[in-house]
Amino acid sequence: MAQDEVLGTDTVKAGFLDKVNDDVAELFTAVSAATSGSGVLVSADDTTIGYLNGKLLAGSNITFTEGSPGGNETLTIAVTLAGSGGSLVSADDTTIGYLNGKLTAGTGITFTEGSGGGNETLEIKVDQTGVPYLLVSSDDTTAAYLEDKLTGGTAITVTTVSPGGNETFDIDWVIPGTPPVVVSADDTTAGYLNGKLTSSGGVSLTEQSGGGDENLDIALSLPGNPTSLVSSNDSTAGYLNGKLVAGNLIDLTEGSDGANETLTVAVDMTEGAAVRVSSDDTTPGYLLGKLTGGTNITVTETNGGGNETFDIDCDISTTNIGKALVSADDTTGGYLNGKLTAGNAIDLTEGSGGGNETLAIACDFTEAANTTVSSNDTTAGYLNGKLTATSPITVTENNNGANETFDIALSLPGNPTALVSSNDSTAGYLNGKLVAGNAIDLTEGSDGANETYTIAVDFTEAGNCTVSSDDTTAGFLDGKLLAGGGIDFTVGSPAGNETLTISGEAATTSNPGVVELASTGETLTGTSSTLATTPLGVMSALTRHLAKAASGYTIAADDVFGNTILSNTGASGSTTHDMPSVTLGDKISFCVTVAQYLRLDANGTDIFRYGGDASAAGGYIRSNVVDTSWECVCVKNGEWLIQRLEGSLLYDV
Length: 653
Description:
Helix content: 10-25%
Number of strands: 32
Radius of gyration: 54 Å
Oligomer: single chain
């Protein structure tokens, strides 16, 4: 079929095309004006056009979800009550849930769900059976029985009497067998000797007379263990032949190798003048030059030239001889009877006055106040002054004036010992320390005998439901739950086993509620009065969309609503696109961006028309001239009208 070339400068026939162009231009102007603000107004009085995502606001229990951002956008409106339970604890609660998730059973409370999967109910009951109600203080988070809340400390035993019956508690202080040993004043845990003493390499601990008058044998075990250390800082023990090193003038000789070995240390005088005063001495010499007599000391060489010796003598006739110093900082020497003073419970006794004198140091237990509480105690005293008892502990002195003992006992009966917390300054009985709050009954049993205290929830009291811990007024659910816009409450089985049904209303122009969203096609059709649309749906209908087609494809009906510009950007050869069946009002634009043919094939018997020229039924148009652009608009059934042509098109005839 022959092809004609139609130029954009060709004369448009008659006034018909002029009229069409004017009408289309008018339509574009109106659409452009609406597009600038999405074209949505709340009412006839609204002065500002906006997008749906700005004009629609989500009320209580309503959520908006934007879909396909930047593409064919939609706006989904959902009611958050459906399928989520619908219950909130308070106005500050951010998560809706079912009653079986929002209500939690405390101590002595049970929940029972009825008619599972049907018209469900939630039964709340008090279960007193086996419920522990005792708390140590108001800060205690877990209730328990006395046997779990009272524990025996050091030397205290706690025994349950009559288990399973009318149980009582026997609390005793046990002295025999109490581990009395602590390592230091800072030791927080007393223990027995066999636990407090530990042995390391070369030392063994042996317990003797197990279960009787026991003792602990501490022995040094040398065989097979290298136990010698040079100093307290030495990190590695070793044998003597490895730890002793022979220096100048010293010979080390090992004897009886492999048996009862010995190590002989000898001076080798054949080495000459090798004596040094210290490790810092830079010049060795003989003893004669290295030893000098100081104050009251004389040094005398004997057997000169033979087996020489040194005689070192102290002149005891000098007044300073025999005087002691307390420390290196002491500036005045003195005799022991002047430098040692007797402290508390210490006696100093000088013996053999004027002869070979001695000084006896003894502890005098007849003196008062020998006991201190700790190493920081500045004042010693007797036990009966250092130990004090606080109720319910009693301290009793026995054998007064003889071999006295102290009896320490725990005395509970008749003493109010309950404290609300560690900060409570006054102990009291349970019936004074426990106070019944809202819907709680406290009942004292067996008055004057083995008394009990029953704590129960009284559900006959009105208004047991509070919204939060800050709620000052309790009430029933139908008074505590308020229905917002679009929400209905329905009480079921009034005056019986009541339930509360929460449901969402249908949305209207004046009432928030549940509404179905319109699709993009339904939004463009614009005939429904019950569907809601989204800013994304309106944008998809009014915003122009640039499509880059590097290869041919079938143009969909949604592409010809006037918001699509199709180019051949990226194409390396000719591209052919199938047009959809033409419908009045359809519009789509095209642009050639690379020097390859962009071809459009009409659907069925549809034609392309430009002025007075037209393609064959089911014919095609094409162009490969860069920057050629045009629009295809349907103003007549079965025809695509070509307008706004810039450049040139080829079409079949």
